[in-house]
Write a structure and sequence with these properties.
Oligomer: single chain
Largest sheet: none
Number of domains: 1
Radius of gyration: 22 Å
Distance between the termini: 47 Å
Strand content: under 5%
Helix content: 55-70%
Number of helices: 13
Order of helices and strands: HHHHHHHHHHHHH
Mean pLDDT: 88
Structural class: mainly alpha
Number of strands: 0
Low-confidence stretches: 1-8, 54-58
Shape: globular
Length: about 325
Amino acid sequence: MRKEATAVSQPAQLHRVDGHLWDSVKKATFVLGSGLFFFAAFRNSVTWHFQRFWGASGDFWQTLWGMLYNYFGGNEWVLFFLGTMIIPTAVFWAFNGILMFADTTGKPSFITRYRIQVDKNNPVDPAKLRQAVKKVLFNQLFLSVPMVIVMYPVMKWRGNPCGPELPTFHWVLLEFFVFGLIEEVLFYYSHRLFHHPAIYRYVHKVHHEWTAPIGVVSLYAHPLEHILANMLPPIVGPVLMGSHVATTMLWFCMALLTTTISHCGYHLPFLPSPEFHDFHHLKFNQCFGVLGVLDRLHGTDAIFKTTKANERHILLLNFTPLSESVPDPPKQKK
């Protein structure tokens, strides 16, 4: 009887695994496909309006790149460092500057009313924030910069990252699809590795000092984690694809904005939902990935899916905070 039960249970388990895998593939296709669709629509619309406004001849983006290329006299190292470090870092701090102002002052209410953990960081502890900013600056200056310097000769070996001709738009879309998949795999498994009990308290515990994260905390990490989990996952894709620096710049900017939104602590209208990663900081052992595809496959979103946070894990298309429209259940009195 025991053997028969085992024989019956194994096909059932295989069926469940196959079901999870197929659901994960569908979710990945939907998330990445939707992102690429909106990116394509945005690019086409913006290009058309820019061309109408300025009367630009030919392809607007190619013309813009040509102007930048000529301005720096075709100096590839300067162009590469500008695209992979200076511009993405400026975008990161510009966005986080707005968020830190809201975190420390409670204004404007248009931002702060969308706080996810309403009883946390209201306002944020100034000393704790200064510590976070110092560590992020250290990681960027002494870890990110050397990695970008090493990245340059590797990219030169792979192709011509700073050539005068931009890649076609459709090729860029394909690259972004590949980048997203690579980042999901590398970040998920490196993130889970850092949660291993033998490693967590020495490395990843630094990042989890913030159980209610804020935007700048996205790069607040132990140096080893910053290299393996923050930097490598977005770098590997462009290196493998031999990408143009313009594509890499756009990808790095999007990666930094996405991780900032995931940590910002506010579920703002018309921006990707940060509920998934915010829940990870709250509970530690759930929601390890970026897209959530591998979490579904491995069952590391099982608890999250039973919570109100999962119901709020949507794109907010109105101005009513989800903490009001989908409130937490009232706490039971002891």
